[in-house]
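Ticket #335: bound-state structure for adenosine-5'-diphosphate.
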Amino acid sequence: MLVVIVGVVTLSFTANLLIEQTIPTAQVTPVRTTVIQALAVAALAATIAGLTTSLLLVQIILRSLRNIAGSSQRIAAGRYDERVEVPASDELRAVAESFNQMAEALEQIEQRRITMIGNVAHELRTPLAGIEGYLEGLIDGVLPNTADTFLDMKQEVRRLRRLVDDLQTLSRVEAGQISLHFTTFDINDVIRRVVAQIQPQVLDGCLQMQFASHEHPLLVHADPDRVAQILLNLLGNAVRYTPEGGCITIRSVHTNDEVQVIVEDTGIGIAAEHLPFIFERFYRADPSRARTSGGSGIGLTIARHLAWAMGGDIRAASAGPGKGSTFTLSLPRAG
Ligand code: ADP
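RESOLUTION: The complex was predicted; output attached.
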């Protein structure tokens, strides 16, 4: 409307000037009247066209916004497959595309939640079925009422406890609720500590340590207990997946800004198709072997989240089945 008013005023002013300069005085009045009439008709037409266009535009915008509002209500009610139609206009297309991206992300989160519940139920079933079997055996008199039977039962209860503890740690670590106590310490001390802790499990097997430097401390800025927890997990896996006669090496190396602890084993290795997924919750390269050996399938997920929380990372590598595995924990270097 403002555009039309400014246009009409400018045009009438210019036309007036031209009329006065170029048209004989006697004809000025009729020409001026004709020009004013023409301008009035043009202004009216422009106003009608402008209003019609604006109304149409508002209608299109309102329809799209109503669509988005409707879809967001359906998503809130649990219809995660809901998407909005992408309109032709640039601005609205961007809004609709962002909305659809958000809806897709929500759908994936929901999918992960459903998978997680299924996995937890599946993991709980195995030790529970074991305990139930022992109890039934005891009640029916099939199993002897001896310490051995109860020890076997305790083993299943321990597995259940470990799973519940791991799940609790996982939920806290994923929610960023784990408390970290950062200090500067020598990573080689922590390596010595975890190796001493894991040694009884290795028995006669070979477990070697190699340090970047024996004389100088290799300082990192992290939580020493959490670093120990990660290394225990990596060493525990190395022990679990390395058959007798194999060897495990843990060594520390450093770059300018990073310290790395490398846990290498000559064990069963990991096939290339499994490697990208082993840090995912409950993922097991070989489900039957991992489950019978007592693994919860979330140890590496927890370890990686802990490493991330300390500004580090964990990477896995393997030349393939039967060719051993290498896990590298990297942490920010201090000092
Ligand atoms: P689990 O408790 O099953 O060991 P993790 O999260 O610690 O769960 O490991 C996930 C999977 O990664 C394991 O089930 C196993 O298939 C594979 N994996 C982990 N460490 C090793 C290793 N050192 N050698 C071979 N496979 C490994």
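RESOLUTION NOTES: Helices lie at 2-22, 25-76, 90-140, 147-174, 187-202, 224-240, 287-292, 299-309.
TICKET STATUS: resolved
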